[in-house]
């Protein structure tokens, strides 16, 4: 329809090459037998073996998954409540303050968020005696705080464009607001809740900076362990780990896309 | 008997939240208050108060001990004394390092945003104009790196650009001597563009896909060349997408820590890295706090105000 000749396809292809070439080279070299990551000397899966025999790496991965699970869940509850408050309760005292505060973590550099929470935890420890030391709990609190902003944005946009008359009908039929929320609102916004939770989960799993500030001795998350390894140079077991993570993510995104494409014809969106 | 039973309306299903609701109402707490209070209290305690604490500690000075800063309030002989130090802030202005780091962060973030826009725009446009069956696959390819680990993508790039990495090996095939790319500002630019490209493409795509084809046809029918059509129709109409995408790249790029520390050299100055070093390497918590407050005032607050203004403009356009 709009013939822009050769420019757009070529520019887009180059862009995709730029996005994927480093990832593909990383995946290929994860199967390299040589310790020097960039010199190919034969196919081998030994780095995967080394990865699964590394207790530090496995421990950090398990810790990160736990933190991501709890943070995403807390962020989901708080973020959804916040979105409901902002979208459904048009007027209440402090609405602008709440709206500003919940979106602030989106523009706040990680180094500031991390530093601020660490200083809070230290001050709380010396005055209240809690939290005693830093570790998984302080990381979960920190991650929940910045993840709830993302959940709130996702849920807010879904709440804003759904048909209010459904809720009103339920209220007219005598359902209490809480019942309306659980029976009508929640099922409708469920897809947003799922994507909000997944977003929070990945963000928490991926965070290096905030976790570095608020973690304590013995609670190094996976990104912290990777970072300390990578600082010393390229290491083949990190390539193996990256390949596994990229594989899982690719499968997940692929499945989500297929599900989305399948469900689309059924729902006739206005 | 049984037939009579079945004609009765089914008993209302007992739901746990009905009881919760009644219980709360009995104590005088409405559901609405609770919905607002829970996130509000959390954000106050774990977001607003910490910023106040940072401000407080920025007025203290480093000491050896736990915690490694002097207390603001001391009690001496029954009187409470408040000691505030402005030395950290004075230092920010007198030591060239900090001002240079702020300016350099803004410069690096700005240039990378422009490059990301130049690379991302044609990609977004190509995806928006692609045939339907291709569009979703291409979009998926843009989103995929975004869901995989940020740290690992920076790492992938470092392997790619290293002294004996893929690029230099390719150059070697053509007889070109290896180029030093790692530990330079160049690597930082590439790193920011590489990791934030999806953030630029997605808002641009959402905007460009809505572009009315009839306008472009009309322009072509009236004899405009493709470039002219692009400059006078497509580009102005996609301005909201350009602004949204640029903000999504520029804002996180300014405070970036991982990219300059893994890809940049010792001379790559970025404020996020300076704050990190001040805290972890020098363990000067009050100085790090002052850097954070200055960053908040000089960078974050202007961006928030800008965004608010932007939202207001958009709301106005929507209501028109």
TrEMBL record, chain A:
Main location: membrane
Membrane topology per record: Multi-pass membrane protein
Gene3D superfamilies: MetI-like
Domain ABC transmembrane type-1 intervals: 61-257
GO biological process: one example: transmembrane transport
Keyword Cell membrane: yes
SUPFAM superfamilies assigned: MetI-like (SSF161098)
Source species, domain of life: Bacteria
UniProt protein name: Spermidine/putrescine ABC transporter permease
Organism: Devosia epidermidihirudinis
């Amino acid at each position: 329809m709009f013939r822009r000749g050769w420019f757009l396809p070529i520019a887009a292809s180059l862009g995709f090459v730029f996005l994927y070439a480093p990832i593909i080279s990383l995946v290929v070299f994860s199967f390299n037998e040589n310790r020097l990551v960039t010199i190919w000397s034969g196919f081998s899966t030994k780095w995967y073996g080394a990865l699964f025999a590394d207790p530090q790496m496995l421990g950090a991965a398990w810790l990160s998954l736990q933190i991501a699970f709890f943070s995403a869940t807390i962020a989901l509850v708080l973020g959804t409540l916040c979105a409901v408050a902002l979208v459904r309760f048009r007027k209440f005292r402090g609405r602008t303050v709440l709206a500003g505060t919940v979106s602030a973590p989106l523009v706040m550099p990680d180094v500031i968020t991390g530093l601020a929470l660490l200083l809070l935890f230290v001050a709380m420890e010396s005055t209240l005696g809690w939290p005693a030391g830093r570790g998984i709990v302080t990381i979960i609190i920190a991650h929940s705080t910045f993840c709830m902003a993302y959940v709130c944005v996702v849920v807010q946009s879904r709440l804003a464009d759904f048909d209010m008359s459904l809720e009103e009908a339920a209220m007219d039929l005598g359902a209490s607001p809480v019942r309306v929320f659980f029976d009508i609102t929640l099922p409708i916004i469920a897809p947003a809740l799922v994507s909000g939770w997944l977003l929070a989960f990945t963000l928490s799993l991926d965070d290096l900076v905030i976790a570095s500030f608020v973690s304590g001795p013995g609670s190094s998350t996976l990104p912290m362990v990777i970072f300390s390894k990578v600082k010393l140079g390229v290491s083949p077991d990190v390539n193996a780990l990256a390949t596994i993570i990229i594989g899982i993510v690719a499968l997940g995104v692929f499945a989500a896309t297929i599900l989305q494409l399948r469900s689309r014809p059924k729902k006739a969106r206005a | 008997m049984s037939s009579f039973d079945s004609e009765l309306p089914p008993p209302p299903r007992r739901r746990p939240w009905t009881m919760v609701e009644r219980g709360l109402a009995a104590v005088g707490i409405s559901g609405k208050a609770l919905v607002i209070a829970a996130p509000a209290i959390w954000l106050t305690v774990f977001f607003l108060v910490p910023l106040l604490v940072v401000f407080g500690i920025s007025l203290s000075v480093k000491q050896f001990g736990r915690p490694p800063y002097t207390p603001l309030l001391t009690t001496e002989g029954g009187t409470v004394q408040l000691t505030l130090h402005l030395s950290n802030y004075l230092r920010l202005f007198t030591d060239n390092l900090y001002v240079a780091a702020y300016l350099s962060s803004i410069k690096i973030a700005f240039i990378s945003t422009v490059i990301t826009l130049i690379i991302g725009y044609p990609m977004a446009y190509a995806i928006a104009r692609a045939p339907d069956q291709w569009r979703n696959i291409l979009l998926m390819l843009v989103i995929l790196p975004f869901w995989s680990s940020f740290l690992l993508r920076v790492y992938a790039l470092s392997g790619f650009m290293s002294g004996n990495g893929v690029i230099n090996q390719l150059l070697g095939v053509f007889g070109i001597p290896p180029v030093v790319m790692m530990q330079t500002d160049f690597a930082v630019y590439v790193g920011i563009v590489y990791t934030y490209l999806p953030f630029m493409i997605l808002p641009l795509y959402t905007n460009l896909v809505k572009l009315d084809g009839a306008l472009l046809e009309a322009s072509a029918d009236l004899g405009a060349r493709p470039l002219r059509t692009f400059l006078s129709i497509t580009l102005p109409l996609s301005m909201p997408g350009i602004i949204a995408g640029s903000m999504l790249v520029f804002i996180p790029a300014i405070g970036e820590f991982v990219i300059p520390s893994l890809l940049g050299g010792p001379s790559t100055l970025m404020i996020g890295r300076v704050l990190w070093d001040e805290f972890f390497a020098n363990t000067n918590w009050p100085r790090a706090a002052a850097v954070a407050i200055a960053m908040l005032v000089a960078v974050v607050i202007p961006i928030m105000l800008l965004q608010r203004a932007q939202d207001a403009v958009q709301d106005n356009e929507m209501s028109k």
